[in-house]
């Protein structure tokens, strides 16, 4: 196992979390094996992951039937299934949490995507899910929308671990980091503990290249200047990594600030950047591109099964994240110069990101509702005989 490059990432200060959750995977012992063999130290879920797991497998059929027989609504069925999976995963990862004194070993559960623009609703659901799961190594995922950030601060202030998701723009990431520090300051001012309060900032990567590359290709097709064409071509696949490096540099600056140092003296930990959406979408690029280029201290990379398999097979682990910050800034400047607005890219992918979680969530609830109706029909037919 010493040749496994996934294990080598730990020596550079990076944790690897599994970007998936599935009951069959947990019950078969596969999650435990990945913790032991690959050094996996956390797990994330979202509505799209649960839709794929619940609708795309038979793992949940018996549990769904039992919950429907109890008279549960489709939404109640989904939540019961999700809470059960997260509890099981959290219990398996509890050893990692204990061994790292609460620094790692977390499982994330997201609030409903229908609440992405509802501050009060997000706070209420986060508190309810936190109490229902009842595990110290749970993180509640809240999107980094303008309405989400006040909910993030309130939940952290109340002692709930938070994973802020759907972060694309560096200015929004900065707001998230200061939101975390404000929540810590409020707790310290009231004499409340901060040692075990945990938060990560999930900064999405590959989706930025997907959209930026699309816009670059459109400009290439319209270009009549060979020099501009060459410049555009050289910028393909560059935006996401440069944007992540800019965010990481902001992380270093913010968490070196005197305001954070003051709460760190009380035991507070940094809010680690988590690289999300790191599976490669473009087949022209390396399938481990967004792993190999973003290795650095105090970070997490959350990977789906296929990217974990690829990196285990042929990934190269070395410290890359802090390489050439100046080059990353030049890349972002060049994108603006050729007419690719990073703000326009990040604004659009945020809107699309919320929708990409809402659509599978609605599909999942509809599928459960269809099963409820089928069960109700069978019961009615049996009673009529």
What is the total number of structural domains?
1
What share of residues are in beta strands? Answer: 5-15%
Order of helices and strands: HEHHEHHHEHEHEHEHHHHEHEHHH
Sum up the overall morphology in one term: globular
Q: Strand arrangement, largest sheet?
A: 1-2-3-4-5-6-7-8
Would you give an account of this structure?
It is a single chain. This protein has 385 residues and is an alpha/beta fold. It has a single domain (5-209, 240-322, 354-384), classed as TIM Barrel (Alpha-Beta Barrel), CATH 3.20.20. Helix content is 59%, strand content 11%. It has helices at residues 5-8, 23-27, 30-38, 47-55, 61-69, 74-99, 119-133, 148-157, 170-189, 206-222, 226-235, 239-254, 258-264, 289-292, 305-314, 325-337, 342-384; strands spanning 14-18, 40-43, 106-110, 138-143, 162-167, 199-204, 272-276, 299-303. An 8-stranded parallel β-barrel has the order 1-2-3-4-5-6-7-8, surrounded by 9 helices. Helix 9 (170-189) runs parallel beside helix 12 (239-254) and helix 12 packs across helix 16 (325-337). The radius of gyration is 22 Å and the shape is globular. The model has no long low-confidence stretch (mean pLDDT 95).
Task: Write a brief structural summary.
This protein is of the alpha/beta class and 385 residues long. It has a single domain, classed as Aldolase class I (TIM Barrel, Alpha-Beta Barrel), CATH 3.20.20. It contains 17 helices and eight strands.
